[in-house]
Amino acid sequence: MQTARAGLVVDGVSKRFGSTVALDAIGFTVAPGELFGFVGANGAGKTTTMRIVLGVLEPDAGSVSFDGRPVDARVRAGFGYLPEERGLYPKDTVAGQLAYFARLHGLSRADAAAAADRWSERVGLAGRRADPVEKLSLGNQQRVQLALALVHSPVALVLDEPFSGLDPLAVDTLAEVLREQADAGVPVVFSSHQLDLVERLCDRIGIVSGGRMTAVGSVAQLQAGHRRRVLVDVPGAPADWLDRVPGARPAGTEDGAAVVELDDDADDQLLLRAALAIGPVHRFSPRRRTVTEIYREVVG
Predict the structure, then answer these.
(1) Rounded distance between C-alpha atoms, residue 298 and residue 78, angstroms
(2) Looking at 188, 204, 222, which one is the last position of a domain?
(3) Whole-angstrom Cα distance, residue 300 to residue 298?
(4) How confident is the model at residue 165, as a pLDDT?
(5) Could you tell me if 232 and 204 lie in one domain?
């Protein structure tokens, strides 16, 4: 029987810099074909984790494996990496740079040139192949960096802030490329401060704070760990109308409607009846928490 691929596994990874604990037993798995969003504040440990996965740093404890094998230099050679910092040769052309990196990954000269053409076109730079990188905007340089991570057909992708500096059209292009890679069975992990994008794109999300994983799961799983909320629009409702609904409390307003938070055992039908007793109800609908709101609660 063939063993299922395990994907990328970060298991109990810890790292100290002097007296500072950068990572405290970080652990998560990115399955084949999965988009995993790795989110946290600046200094939370995201980049340190990625550098350990890529072998730039050594962990003090824990391990990183891919498909059941420890990640060593040979395994890492098959990974695609996009660092947060620019790592481009400014005087080189787009095509020349892509072909050079493809050659470093072992492609033949002809295959490297073909890959450079294919990926420059895919990331929207077909007309800029002959341009030096220094002539490109920062957003287009980010497109080059993405192409560099993909030019050798990686077995896994590790991307640090890949959407940084991109305009909306470039964001759409990058999102399409990442989904294509995941659909082809590639584990994809990326960090981002754009939590709306993370919510829209990712199959699962990991929230890191102070070097620790504080929450991991799909958006639905993360939402399930928080109290229910309902949007209720009842014109003319008195300020104390929720007092008659056990387990209900006001939680602000949104688009002119009241946001009502309910305890686990609260009856939303009782809430509806209380609203109808006041007058016409223009809106009554569940209100799912966004990843941004969950993040604030988990980290704050």
Answers:
(1) 34
(2) 222
(3) 6
(4) 83
(5) no
